[in-house]
Amino acid sequence: MKNKTQFIFGFSLVVFAIGLIMASIIIVAVSDKLSILNAKTATISVINTSNQPLSLIDKVGQVTDPAMIWNFFLTKESVPSFINQLKKIGSQVGGEVSVLYFNINRNPSTHWGNLLTLIIKLEGDWRVIKYMHKVIETLPYHSRLTRLSLKQPDLATGVDRWTSEITLNMILK
Q1: How many C-beta neighbours within 10 Å does residue 47 have?
Q2: What is the rounded distance in angstroms from the CA atom of residue 87 to the CA atom of residue 99?
Q3: Average pLDDT of the segment spanning 46-55
Q4: What is the distance between the alpha carbons of residues 128 and 130, in angstroms, rounded to a whole number?
Q5: What confidence score (pLDDT) does residue 35 get?
Q6: In b/e form, how buried is each residue of 11-27, taking b as 16+ CB within 10 angstroms?
Q7: C-alpha 52, offset from chain centre
Q8: Per-residue pLDDT for 104 more than 80?
Q9: How does residue 154 score in pLDDT terms, banded at 50, 70 and 90?
Q10: Is 56-172 assigned to CATH 3.30.70.60?
């Protein structure tokens, strides 16, 4: 009887030790996974905050060299590449960007520079329209959004295709 009790006690001790080892292995594995998850979450939050577009005032406020202020103005020569960039961003997010009107005139409010007037048409689902509005509102150039219109999709067709027209004035250097 004494041998049987010693056997059960020894066996229980071995099972307890194995259970303790298994539990510590699981705790270490979970802890490692948790630290990886925390690192990924921190990285995502940094990416999310770094992707937040700055307003023009915030961007100008970060300029340390006064000559860099001119980077906030387009030139006549850079307008086509600017328009192509907007079209590219629109297509990358699944929408369509087109220019309905384009004009460059002498800026009537100042004695220098020209005024670029663009009427931009955006087409896509609501997510695309909202994203492109944000892109245009936070352009890193001296610009003013003077008109914005939205056209809701025809619910009878079941196609989620919004249309928006934006009139944008930009001072060119």
Answers
A1: 9
A2: 9
A3: 43
A4: 5
A5: 55
A6: eeeeeeeeeeeeeeeee
A7: 6
A8: yes
A9: confident
A10: yes
